[in-house]
Amino acid sequence: MDSGSGKLVRDGVIILLSVCIAILLAKTGTIDAVLHSFNGSFALTAFLAGILFTSVFTTPIGIASFIVLGIDGYNPFVVALVGALGSLLGDSIIYRFVKIDIVDDIEFIEEKSGFKRVLHIFRKKKYRWITPFLGALIIASPLPDELGIGMLAVSKIKFKYFLIVSYVLNFFGILTLVFFGEIF
Question: Residue 77: what pLDDT?
Answer without folding.
Answer: 96
